[in-house]
Specification:
This protein has three domains: about 25 residues, no CATH class; about 55 residues; about 30 residues. The strands form two sheets. It has a two-stranded antiparallel ribbon with strand order 1-2. The protein contains six helices and four strands. With about 120 residues, the protein is an alpha+beta fold. Helices cover about 55% and strands about 15% of the residues.
């Protein structure tokens, strides 16, 4: 595990590498609690779990074809699902090419033509 962290700002085109603060070097929950306290550790973990849970639900909301309103799950199906035993999963990170391919696959032929023309001008 690296002891440095890279922070990028796409907005202004800058990047900086710094030494990780001690809290980011903790390798166990015990170490983390010793550094920031139990209450803060629980709060931070729950905040990230909330983000992860919302991502799970968001993927269900977005599943299907938004162009014609044909979604895989109705709101009622999502609401009636039992999430009591939900646990976060490790999500694989997609490359920019994979993300672009997924987005492009959802476009109509006319939209795809326009998107490719715009990309060629960039």
């Amino acid at each position: 595990m690296s002891d440095t962290i890279i922070t990028k700002s796409k907005k202004v085109g800058r990047e900086i590498t710094l030494k990780k603060p001690k809290v980011l070097q903790a390798n166990t929950l015990k170490e983390l609690v010793e550094i920031i306290g139990e209450s803060m550790a629980v709060s931070k973990i729950k905040a990230q779990l909330t983000i992860d849970f919302r991502a799970t639900v968001r993927s269900m909301l977005e599943s299907g074809d938004a162009n014609n309103g044909q979604f895989t799950y109705t709101d009622q199906e999502i609401k009636s699902r039992n999430f009591n035993d939900w646990k976060p999963e490790t999500r694989s990170r997609r490359t920019p090419e994979e993300k672009a391919a997924e987005l492009l696959s959802k476009l109509t032929p006319d939209q795809l033509k326009v998107a490719l023309e715009l990309a060629n001008k960039a």
